[in-house]
Amino acid sequence: MLLAKSLLLLCSAVAVMARQSSAAVASGAIFVGVDTTKPDATPLDIFKDPINHATAISSIVAFSARKNGFTPSVVPAKSLVGPMGNFMKHLASFPGFFLEMNEQRPVHLTGSLIQLERAVREASLHHKALIGRSMRDLVPGYIPDETIDHWVLSLVVMDVPSDSAYARLFLIYLTMDIKTDEAGTAIIPEQRAMVNWSILRVNRSFLTAYADSMVDIVPITKVRDTIDLLTSPKDITGENIFAAPACRTML
Ligand SMILES: *[C@@H]1O[C@H](CO)[C@@H](O)[C@H](O)[C@H]1NC(C)=O
Ligand SMILES: *[C@@H]1O[C@H](CO)[C@@H](O)[C@H](O)[C@H]1NC(C)=O
Fold first, then answer.
1. pTM (predicted TM-score)
2. Could you say which residues form the signal peptide (predicted)?
3. Is residue 214 classed exposed, middle or buried when 0-12, 13-18 and 19+ CB atoms within 10 A define those classes?
4. Would you say the C-alpha torsion 107, 112, 118, 121 has a positive or negative sign?
C-alpha cells in the first residue's frame, strides 16, 4: 500500500517533469534586392564602395550574430533565446545603424500553416508575401523534445536596394506556442500570437566614411554565408542541436 502510494507520487513527479515547458528559436534569413558586390573587391572596397554594400551589411549582421552567440546553424534551438535578444540590441546600437521602428502586432492563429502565412502576411508592413511565406517555412514540423512548447520564429531580412542612400534590416519575431503529439509532430493550437517588428536603417555614407575602421573590426561574410549562419537546420533531431550549450562552437 505504502509502496503503491510512493510509486504514484513518483509517477506524478515524472509526469510534471515531462510537462516542463521551455522555449526555443527557429531562425531564417533572406536577402531582398540585387547583390552587386564585385568578385574582386578588397575588404576595404566592401565598406567604401556602395556597390559592395550588400556584402558590407551581410558582414555586419554575421559579425553581430557571432559576437552574441546567435548562430542558429550550430547552436541548439533551446539556447538561442537570450542570444537572439542580445543580437538585436547589438545591431540596433551598431555605428551607422539606427532603429527606425519597433512595433508589436497580435496575430490570431487557428492551426493551419496556410492560415499562419496569411496572418503574418496581413500583419506585415513590407515584403508581405515574402515574409508570410518565409515565416511559415520556419515552423518546425517535427519537434523531438516535448518540453519545447514555446517558440520564437526569427526572420532577418536584409534589404539592400542598389540605388538608395539607405539599406534596411527587418528583424521579425513571431512568438507562438507549438504543441506536439506523441510522435513529435507539431500542432499549432488556436492562439493569439505576437509579431514583433524592428526596422533598422543603415546609413550607407557612414559605412563609406568609416570604411577604414569597419574593416579592422568586421570580418567579411558573403550574403550567402550569412544566410547559412542564421538558418536553423531543418532536422533538429541531431544531437549537435540538442547538445548542451557548452558544446557551442563559434564559426
Ligand atoms: C516583443 O515585444 C514585446 C514588447 O516590447 C517584448 O516584451 C517581447 O520580449 C518582444 N519579443 C521578442 C521576441 O523580441
Ligand atoms: C550618415 O553618415 C554620414 C557620414 O558619417 C553623416 O554625415 C550623416 O549625418 C549621417 N546621416 C544620418 C541621418 O545620421
1. 0.87
2. 1-18
3. buried
4. positive
